[in-house]
Amino acid sequence: MDLNLKDKVFLITGGGSGIGGAIVQQLAAEGAIPVVVDRDEKATALILDPLKAQGKTVHFCCMDLTSPENCQQTVMEILKKFNRIDGLVNNAGVNDGIGLEHGSVEAFQNSIRLNLFHYYYMAHYCLPALKKTRGTILNIASKTGITGQGGTSGYAAAKGGQLALTREWAVELLKYSIRVNAIVPSEVMTPMYKRWINTFDNAEEKLKSIEVNIPYENRMTTAIEIANMAIFLLSDRASHITGQQIFVDGGYVHLDRATSVLNKEH
């Protein structure tokens, strides 16, 4: 199926690894031009260098997105080089464990700044270009913003905010034919997730205790599975989908955990 993404320019924040990196790889495979915005130049090179070796057109902006000025500079740089932006993937963020009991007011504020504000900044500065291309915005959220997790107030609040902004922007941008959607992952195996798992004394046992509660096949979602949905939502094939929260999670949020036990019995 041709997704009609060839030569279209997509900006992916946090595209240097994990879910963002997988989206970059899948966009490049479709002939699109992924522009990675990330602070980690070394990690990003592991994603982009093989794509460059294949002759793919890719671009990297090494930038900290916590200030609006940096976000504006990034967008201006991309427009100067490519003269268009067809889509924005807001993805950068980190589950920093800033809770209500074990946290501080300052840490909570910083968590929101790290995980939510740049979603607005990037959309704001990309909007004039997106109006010209009738482009699309895709927000990578998290089930944490819906189900809660415990001990991560800042991250949960930011993810809930991202989902609220998805609906709000979808309404506001209807008149420009700009579609806005969100993907809601649950348990996805990424380098960041692996680092977290490895903080436990028995990492393998901890991972199995998580996987047993994922209804479909009792396994983690892969970053590529998130990316496959992402490139569909960014494409013309999703031309009448906007304001949606799409769960790619093996039924983790919406299916009864008892189904996991039934799966093992059969």
Based on the model shown, name its key terms:
266 residues, alpha/beta, seven-stranded parallel sheet, two-stranded parallel ribbon, globular
Commentary on this structure:
With 266 residues, the chain is an alpha/beta fold. It has a single domain, classed as Rossmann fold. It has helices spanning 18-29, 41-53, 68-82, 105-133, 144-147, 153-172, 191-197, 203-211, 223-234, 258-265, and strands at 9-13, 33-38, 59-62, 87-90, 136-140, 179-185, 188-189, 221-222, 245-248. The strands form two sheets. A seven-stranded parallel β-sheet has the order 3-2-1-4-5-6-9, sandwiched between helices. Helix 2 links the parallel strand 2 (33-38) and strand 3 (59-62). Helix 1 (18-29) packs parallel to helix 2, helix 1 crosses helix 9 (223-234) and helix 3 runs parallel beside helix 4 (105-133). The chain is globular, with a radius of gyration of 18 Å.
